[in-house]
Each structure stands twice: as C-alpha cells, then as structure tokens.
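RECORD TYPE: inverse folding
INPUT: structure tokens
STRUCTURE:
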C-alpha cells in the first residue's frame, strides 16, 4: 500500500515536471509570436490609418500605382533626370505613350504625413503654371509621385552663368525670363486665391520651377505646402520650413510679423532676383564685399540711377523688362511682410510699365545663407 502510494506520488511529481517544461517552452516560443502579432496589428492599423487618410481627403481620385507599375513605367529606373535631398527623379512612359517624371522618395519622413500632404495639396490644383500630378505610389516604405514630364527640366539649371559652359547653353533672353517670372506669379496667385482652400507653398526656388518644351514655368514640389482656410490671414507653424536663402525672415524670426501668403512672396522675390543676376543671391566667394549680396548691389545701382550692369541687355525692351523684374523682386523681399505686395499685385506690377514703379526701400535683412546650416537671422548691411 505504501509502495503504491509512493508510485502514485512519483507519477504526480513527474507530471508536474513535464507541465513546467511545457510552460517554459510556451513562454519562449508562443509569447514572442503573440507579441509579433500585436506589432503586426499596430502596423496594419497605421497602414489602415493612411488608407483612410487618402480616402477621406479625396486623393483616390488621383490614380494610384503599384510599385511594379512604377518599375515598369521607368524601365527599372533606367534614366535619371534629377536628384535632390528628397530622392531621385526618373523619366518614364505610361502605357499610352505619355512621357512622365517619376519622383522616388528615398527618405520617407515620419509615418507618411508629408507624403499625404503633398499628394493632397497637388490633387486640389489645376492650373497651367502648376505641374500636374498624374498619380502616386504608396506601398509600405515605397513612395513615388508621377508628374507630367517637363523636357527643359528645372529653372535652376538654365539661369546661372556657372552652368552655361557645362550645359552648352547661354542666357535665356530677357523676354523668356520675363515670361517665366510672370508665369510663376500667375501660379502663386492661383495657389493663394484661386483654390477653394489657400495653399502656401513654402519652398519656392529655381529648383522647384519646371519648364515645359515652350519654357512655360510650372511650380512643383509641394512637400512643405500648407493648406489653410481663405478667411485666415496668418497661420501658425511649429517649425521653420523652406530652403535657406529663400525663407522669409518671419518664418524663422517670429517677432517680425505673422506667417502668411507673404512668405511665398518673399521666396518669389529671391527667385526673380537670381534669375536677373544669373547667380546665387548670396555669394561667399565674391571678389568685392559689395557684391556678396546681389539684392543690395542691384538696389544701390537703382538708387544711383546707374546702368544695371546685367548681361545680354541688347535694347530698350530688354532694359525695361530687366528693370521691372529687379524692382518687383526688391519689393517682394522687403523685411516687413505688410510692405510686400500680394501675388495679384505682383502680376499687375509685372504687366504694367516700369515708369509706374518706384524703387523700394533697401531690404536690410536676408534669409540665412545656403552655405550655412544655421537658421538664425543674418544681418546684411
């Protein structure tokens, strides 16, 4: 009886030991799997969040492509036509033969909000001076934008003297530069007043102006754009946005004034002045100190009623267009936002006669230089 009781107890202990081993196995193998399922569920929820985001914003009206479609239309990314901090742009072709530019975002920011923001902004636009978004790809970490193809590339390549020899091209001519400046102005006027919701671009610069076969300018790259209500005159930003050398002073120094459509006006003015000068507005390697900051150099010539000293001015027509662009550009980069014209006023100024324009005050503050990573205010005297 004693032996039988002992045997039964031993069997119980043995069964308990097996249970412990099984439990340990489950802890090692089952729980991580369960954790993996939870993480996977979170990823699915995040992915679903952006699917809903696309749908709620009406973005699905714009065609959505798979990543396989993107590879097919670019012939596996065979021909690169541009590159920037965002990634690369490739030339592609749709099934119907239409040429397209495909921007591949190599470093997606955050969880996709910037991408959704760009697609959302561009899907609301339809204007001859805004690049047309034909579709997009949003698949896990793969993000791409499909635009109409611009055979003459970005304005940046064609306006700087330093590129002429490298590209085998010359000065575009003042009539072309004038028409380009007027086209950019029309595009910004549309964004600020022509849409149901006002769109502030926040990154107007020569690199983001694309040119079609007839040199018609089209504003591109809406990654930093902000959509706001028409009735609001100013907006709030959590951080400065834009490209050094083109950022309005109030964007990085808030006591100057409120952030509004006038911030785009400033960037437009800096862009026009680079078109006029055929050089960067701020040149750290300039031979003379007076030539370091082009807006001050050209403003002094206007004040003294001297020849502007610009290249390829061959007649009175060229001189008038060049002077008009200079004066408008200088009005646009006034430090105080309230002094700057609105974009519809800029259009009127460019269309009018140069005799109707007076020389603006000297702008005494500039955007931080592109050669410096700092975003602090820089004083130019």
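DESIGNED SEQUENCE:
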């Amino acid at each position: 009886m004693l032996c039988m009781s002992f045997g039964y107890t031993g069997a119980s202990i043995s069964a308990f030991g097996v249970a412990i081993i099984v439990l340990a196995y489950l802890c090692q193998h089952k729980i991580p799997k369960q954790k993996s399922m939870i993480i996977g569920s979170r990823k699915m929820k995040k992915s679903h969040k952006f699917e809903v985001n696309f749908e709620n914003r009406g973005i699905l009206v714009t065609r959505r492509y798979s990543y396989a479609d993107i590879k097919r239309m670019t012939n596996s990314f065979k021909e690169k036509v541009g590159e920037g901090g965002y990634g690369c742009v490739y030339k592609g072709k749709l099934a119907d033969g239409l040429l397209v530019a495909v921007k591949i975002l190599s470093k997606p920011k955050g969880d996709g909000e910037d991408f959704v923001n760009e697609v959302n902004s561009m899907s609301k636009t339809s204007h001859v001076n805004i690049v047309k978004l034909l579709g997009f790809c949003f698949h896990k970490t793969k993000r791409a934008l499909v635009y109409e193809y611009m055979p003459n590339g970005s304005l940046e390549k064609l306006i700087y003297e330093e590129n002429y020899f490298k590209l085998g091209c010359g000065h575009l001519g003042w009539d072309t530069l004038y028409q380009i400046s007027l086209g950019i102005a029309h595009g910004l006027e549309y964004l600020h007043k022509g849409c149901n919701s006002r769109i502030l671009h926040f990154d107007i610069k020569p690199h983001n102006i694309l040119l079609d076969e007839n040199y018609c300018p089209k504003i591109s790259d809406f990654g930093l754009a902000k959509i706001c209500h028409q009735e609001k005159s100013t907006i709030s930003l959590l951080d400065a946005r834009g490209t050094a050398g083109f950022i309005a002073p109030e964007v990085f120094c808030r006591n100057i004034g409120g952030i509004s459509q006038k911030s785009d006006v400033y960037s437009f003015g800096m862009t026009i002045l680079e078109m006029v000068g055929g050089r960067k507005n701020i040149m750290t390697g300039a031979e003379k100190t007076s030539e370091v900051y082009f807006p001050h150099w050209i403003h002094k010539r206007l004040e003294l009623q001297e020849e502007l000293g610009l290249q390829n001015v061959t007649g009175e027509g060229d001189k008038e267009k060049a002077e008009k662009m200079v004066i408008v550009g200088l009005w646009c980069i006034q430090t105080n936002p309230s002094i700057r014209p609105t974009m519809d006023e800029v259009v009127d100024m460019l269309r009018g006669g140069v005799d109707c324009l007076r020389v603006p005050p000297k702008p005494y503050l500039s955007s931080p230089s592109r050669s410096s990573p700092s975003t602090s205010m820089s004083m130019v005297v």
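NOTES: The domain at 61-148 is CATH 3.30.200.20 (Phosphorylase Kinase; domain 1).
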